[in-house]
Amino acid sequence: MTRLKSDLECPPLTTTTKNHPTPNSNKMANARLGGSKRTLIATIGDEDSITGLLLAGTGHVTAASKKNFMVVDSSQYLTTFNILSFIHQDFKGSVLRSERGTETPVSEIQKAFDEFTTERDDIAIVLINQHVADKIRPSVDKYEAAFPALLEIPSKDHPYDPEKDSVLKRVKKLFGE
């Protein structure tokens, strides 16, 4: 393969410039935050919300294979895997079944919530779909720590209800509304 002269003149990727971060930029950000290790956003939600946030770059897997996200399946909706398997079965001549995805047990949602809010020290923000938070509402309402911050977000199929949001409830209580 012939190299062009312009290929040879490109600066290496580790060059330090004012506008481009270096590999040590994470360390510099931590120093500005007072040495905090809390740099990740954790997410508990439905497949569409998690997919969107992962595509936005929030996904992370530790060396111990711990993920900073959890996909919660609802029995009301067909999962992508089930839809694809149904289509495959249909092309093979089988009858198209109307099976539903398996619903994630509340205990698993609670376990992920506890892991993200108490066990891990690298999580700065926990995003949770409001309809998922409703399944563990007592724990969400009881959570009062500043870090990681807990935010309830809407999903594609479930609109946001400010009356259920634990953060807004506390703000209203603080201002006497």
UniProtKB/TrEMBL annotation:
Species of origin: Puccinia graminis f. sp. tritici
Organism lineage: Eukaryota, Fungi, Dikarya, Basidiomycota, Pucciniomycotina
Top-rank taxon: Eukaryota
Role summary: Subunit of the V1 complex of vacuolar(H+)-ATPase (V-ATPase), a multisubunit enzyme composed of a peripheral complex (V1) that hydrolyzes ATP and a membrane integral complex (V0) that translocates protons. V-ATPase is responsible for acidifying and maintaining the pH of intracellular compartments.
Pfam short name (any one): ATP-synt_F
Biased composition (Polar residues): 13-26
Similarity section: Belongs to the V-ATPase F subunit family.
Subcellular location as annotated: Vacuole membrane
Presence of keyword Hydrolase: no
GO CC annotation terms, alphabetical: fungal-type vacuole membrane; proton-transporting V-type ATPase, V1 domain
Keyword Ion transport attributed: yes
Region (Disordered): 1-26
Subunit structure as annotated in this protein's UniProt entry: V-ATPase is a heteromultimeric enzyme composed of a peripheral catalytic V1 complex (components A to H) attached to an integral membrane V0 proton pore complex (components: a, c, c', c'', d, e, f and VOA1).
InterPro entries found in the cross-reference section: ATPase_V1-cplx_f_g_su, ATPase_V1-cplx_fsu_euk, ATPase_V1_fsu_sf
UniProt protein name: V-type proton ATPase subunit F
Membrane topology per record: Peripheral membrane protein
GO molecular function: proton-transporting ATPase activity, rotational mechanism
Keyword annotations from UniProtKB, A to Z: Hydrogen ion transport, Ion transport, Transport
